[in-house]
């Protein structure tokens, strides 16, 4: 099971702790950019959302999308997949030890965050690794539950606790977990 965290509270926590998360990477991709990309259905249908974005050869090589719009198209492809019944199978990864490599602590999942925000979600599933004290504080401050109306967008592994999940002794939430 993933740790469900509120996006804006993650940013508040980062500012308060000095964690260096100055926002999510694709905040500059506007809703209008994503809406425009959604209208380009032949392109977004060719984007393989099962691959990491840098591994999708179609998106990186297509002349049909300008370089400055490729991220909007990747996000639009994720939105389209969710709208037609697909789901997010992987949690967004936060690692407090990877700050030097990714400049934000979010190691993988920026496109997913922006797609979730576009669909109106205020929280999302996160996999956490790094400094336990820091992560326990993050879950205490930003912990959330997946709203029932959005559960259809997520794979079962992100919604249901397993014996591999370790209950976090933080905050009032009964189903808050830090993944082992």
Short description:
This protein has 180 residues and is of the alpha+beta class. It has helices at 7-17, 31-38, 41-44, 57-61, 70-83, 99-102, 110-118, 132-142; strands spanning 3-6, 92-95, 106-108, 123-129, 165-167, 177-179. It has 8 helices and 6 strands, in the order βαααααβαβαβαββ.
Descriptive notes:
It is a single chain. 37% of the residues lie in helices and 13% in strands. It has 180 residues and is α+β, with helices and mostly antiparallel strands. The protein has one domain (3-179). Strands 1-4-2-3 form a 4-stranded mixed β-sheet. A two-stranded antiparallel sheet has the order 5-6. The longest helix has 14 residues, at 70-83. The radius of gyration is 16 Å and the shape is globular. It starts with a strand and ends with a strand.
Features:
single chain, 180 residues, alpha+beta, two-stranded antiparallel ribbon, 6 strands, 13% strand, globular
As a whole number of angstroms, the C-alpha radius of gyration is 16 Å
Question: Number of folding domains?
Answer: 1
Counted beta strands: 6
* Overall mean confidence score, pLDDT: 82
How much strand? 5-15%
Order of helices and strands: EHHHHHEHEHEHEE
Q: Structural class of the secondary structure composition?
A: alpha+beta
Low-confidence stretches: 166-180
Quaternary arrangement of the chains shown? Answer: single chain
Per DSSP, the total helix count is 8
Euclidean distance between termini CA atoms: 10 Å
Work out the helicity level: 25-40%
In the sheet with the most strands, the strands line up as: 1-4-2-3
Largest sheet: 4 strands, mixed
Shape: globular
């Amino acid at each position: 099971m993933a740790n469900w965290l509120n996006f804006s509270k993650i940013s508040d926590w980062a500012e308060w702790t000095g964690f260096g998360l100055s926002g999510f990477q694709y905040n500059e991709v506007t809703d209008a950019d994503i809406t425009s990309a959604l209208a380009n259905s032949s392109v977004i249908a060719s984007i393989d959302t099962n691959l990491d974005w840098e591994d999708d050869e179609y998106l990186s090589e297509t002349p049909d999308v300008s370089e400055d719009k490729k991220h909007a198209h990747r996000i639009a492809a994720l939105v389209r997949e969710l709208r037609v019944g697909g789901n997010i199978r992987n949690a967004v990864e936060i690692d407090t030890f990877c700050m030097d490599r990714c400049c934000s602590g979010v190691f993988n999942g920026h496109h997913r965050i922006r797609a979730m925000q576009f669909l109106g979600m205020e929280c999302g599933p996160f996999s956490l690794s790094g400094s336990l004290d820091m992560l326990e504080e993050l879950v205490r401050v930003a912990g959330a539950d997946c709203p029932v109306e959005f559960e259809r967008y997520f794979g079962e592994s992100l919604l249901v606790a397993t014996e591999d999940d370790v209950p976090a002794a933080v905050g009032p939430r009964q189903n808050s977990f830090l993944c082992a």
